[in-house]
Amino acid sequence: MKLHVGCAMWAHTGWQGRLLPHPLAPRERLRAYASWCNAVEGNTTFYATPSAETVRSWAEQTGPDFRLLLKLPKPISHGLRLADADVPLRSFLQVMEPLGPRVHALWIQLPASFGPSDLGTLAAFLHRVPRGLRSTVEVRHPAFFEDRRWEQRLERVLGDVGAEWTSFDTTSVFATPPTNEAEREAWAKKPRLPRRSRALTDRPIVRYIGREDARRTTEGWRHWTGTIADWLREGRSPTVFIHTPDNDDSLALARRFHDEVRALVPGVEPLPEPLPTGPPTLF
């Protein structure tokens, strides 16, 4: 039984020399991260499609059971809004082919303006995703959370192709006013939506954003440790991503989340031992 956990990125300045070895060549950064976590959000692909050589290096740095969620490029999800996207989608997926089974799902993050009237477009796009490639959809339009009718219609669209609805939980961030600049930025940029913890498939995906205070972050994820434990007992294979506003501690917190779930479900496999941050010493 395996629980996959990770962060929003695999290279972060705040981790260097403290959690990850430093310096590290670009072609070694994902390998070092993968000694801490067994999944990562592929946010980089949202902003630009990497070169084929870069993608091959990602494959070389990770094992086949590592989970990488590839975010659909912004020009497709936000520019074209999924319409007439066959050619750019095919080109993107062709570049990603060297990753093989590491591509856990195609992550389709949609703008807040993508609402109920766009469900037909979403359905048509999902039916064009190649068979064998999972999709997970992140919506931010309030109607999908506040109107049961539209929630059910979206679930039917996703269910028709076996796609998941990404749970993006920002309730901890907005529970109390921000205490520093990083939290104020999160207040300005993150969607303020109700928590949703209903799994549609056997591979649910959760994105949880905590606070700068580690204690408040762990208190805020209590709902998820219990939910994830239940999903594992049901035979599901969840993936959970832990964020904080500045992400300086998210790598360690992701492992802590894994430890807390493993305490509830002892059959969960342990994570690998992290690489040392410096050379070995005699004492």
From TrEMBL:
Q: Which Pfam families match?
A: DUF72 (PF01904)
- Native species of this protein? Streptacidiphilus alkalitolerans
* InterPro entries reported in the protein's UniProt record: DUF72 (IPR002763), UPF0759_sf (IPR036520)
Name of the protein this chain belongs to? DUF72 domain-containing protein
